[in-house]
Design brief:
Layout: H1 2-31, E1 37-46, E2 50-73, E3 82-84, E4 91-101, E5 112-122, E6 127-129, E7 133-137, E8 144-149, E9 152-157, H2 161-182, E10 190-195, H3 198-202, E11 214-217, E12 222-226, H4 231-251, H5 260-271, H6 276-288, H7 294-297, H8 305-326, H9 328-339, H10 344-352, H11 356-372
Parallel strand pairs: 9-10, 10-12
Antiparallel strand pairs: 1-2, 2-3, 2-4, 2-5, 5-6, 5-7, 8-9, 11-12
Helix pairs in contact: 2-4, 4-5, 5-8, 6-8, 6-11, 8-9, 8-11, 9-10
Length: about 375
């Protein structure tokens, strides 16, 4: 009888222990069952040099891995997603941040859109990925206002409304004239940031040359301009930069690379007649026999001021020759052929039935008559 009672007690104790252990095992996972939760995320600019991304998250178990995913929204045939791993101490509640130093990519223009999202994983293997958010990289030095007309959005800040309006009107007139002369026009929206001075505009750029008065970011569809006291310069420069956007949009392709003479010449042609100083440089070169070959004008222009002026003037004259001699349809056809990935000689040969050397010889006869008044033998 006593042995039976002892056995019952031992059995009962064993059952109790098993129940306690079972309850403990059942309770453990339920405490850490919920997946991590992202409670706050933000992106803050330190314009123009950096963006700081922050995250707050919590979980039922220690968070051990956090990844930031981000990509810049731009006109591209490939979507490139970058990843960053902020350093933090594992815990059930964390606050982390990571700063993107934009110097390593040469900076971003104002108005650039950055899409970002976070992935958080805890020690139990549970994870959560946030819904992507889009952050607009804004020049926080100024309070921006905007004017929209058709495909153009002009941004300006206090005191610059009249200048922005003049530029908008000049832009629309320049676009209309370019379309009349060549048939080319904008096919997608463009945003223009008007700064009250060159100095203010340079403050928005990374590693800008001090002589830069305007800049076009074709893959962001963004133009920056710093206003000058010379309003003719402002208007011509605005049209020049818009023409760069047009030639980019017309020739956009995975294998496209326009020769510099065509890209810059097209933009100068959009401005109107060649101004006095570059025209005199071109005339002098024609008289001296020091004009540049089309081959040399296909690559980057010289940093030497005199040679650079001649490069721009001669590029204008080459486009002027093609448009005046063969018409706007063939000029547009040339851009279309480049969009298909043709090489420089091949594109000219397909549209005009001559290569770069042939273009130079024909242009030289045209330019000598127009600028020097001499007919070559």
């Amino acid at each position: 009888m006593r042995r039976h009672n002892i056995a019952q007690r031992i059995f009962g104790l064993g059952v109790a222990v098993m129940l306690i252990v079972g309850l403990a095992l059942g309770a453990g996972p339920s405490l850490a069952q919920g997946e991590p939760e992202i409670t706050r995320m933000a992106a803050v600019p330190n314009f123009p040099g950096a963006i700081t991304f922050t995250l707050e998250a919590s979980a039922g178990a220690a968070i051990i891995d956090i990844r930031l995913h981000y990509r810049v929204e731009r006109d591209s045939y490939a979507k490139v997603v970058s990843e960053a791993k902020p350093v933090f101490a594992p815990a059930a509640q964390v606050v982390v941040s990571w700063t993107w130093d934009l110097r390593y990519i040469g900076g971003l223009p104002p108005g650039a859109a950055v899409e970002y999202w976070w992935t958080v994983r805890d020690v139990s293997g549970l994870s959560v990925t946030s819904t992507p958010e889009t952050f607009i990289f804004t020049d926080t030095r100024f309070q921006w206002q905007q004017t929209v007309w058709d495909n153009l959005t002009v941004y300006w800040y206090s005191g610059g409304e009249s200048g922005a309006q003049v530029l908008l009107e000049a832009s629309l007139a320049g676009l209309a004239e370019l379309e009349a002369k060549t048939g080319a026009r904008l096919t997608r929206p463009v945003q223009i940031y008007v700064y009250a001075s060159t100095e203010a505009m340079l403050g928005a750029m990374m590693f800008a040359q001090e002589w830069t008065g305007a800049a076009t970011y074709t893959d962001h569809a963004t133009i920056l301009i710093g206003l000058s006291s010379d309003w003719e310069w402002n208007e011509r420069t605005m049209v020049h930069e818009l023409a760069h956007m047009i030639s980019y949009q017309l020739t956009r392709g995975p294998y496209t690379r326009l020769p510099i003479w065509l890209s810059e010449g097209f933009s100068m042609y959009a401005e109107g007649e060649l101004s006095l100083f570059p025209a005199s440089e071109l005339t002098s070169a024609l008289n001296d026999g020091t004009t540049l070959t089309v081959h040399s004008l296909s690559g980057p222009f010289s940093a030497d001021p005199a040679r650079s002026y001649l490069s721009y003037a001669q590029s204008y004259s080459l486009v002027d020759y093609l448009a005046a001699t063969y018409g706007q349809e063939r000029l547009l056809a040339l851009l279309a052929v480049f969009a298909g990935g043709a090489d420089y000689d091949g594109a000219l040969q397909e549209v005009y039935d001559f290569d770069m050397d042939g273009l130079y010889d024909r242009w030289l006869r045209y330019a000598m008559i127009k600028y020097v008044g001499m007919i070559l033998a």
